[in-house]
Amino acid sequence: MKTTCLLLAFLISLSLSPQKHVVLTHGTIFGAKPDTTAIVSASKVEAFMGNKTRITIALRGKVIKVTKQRGGWFTLDAGNGKIISAHFTRYNISIPTGLKGKTVIAEGVVQKQFIADDQQHFAGDTISGTKHSNLKTNNKNRLSFEVKGLMIDK
Question: Rounded to the nearest 5°, which phi and psi values hold at 145?
Answer without folding.
Answer: -135, 115
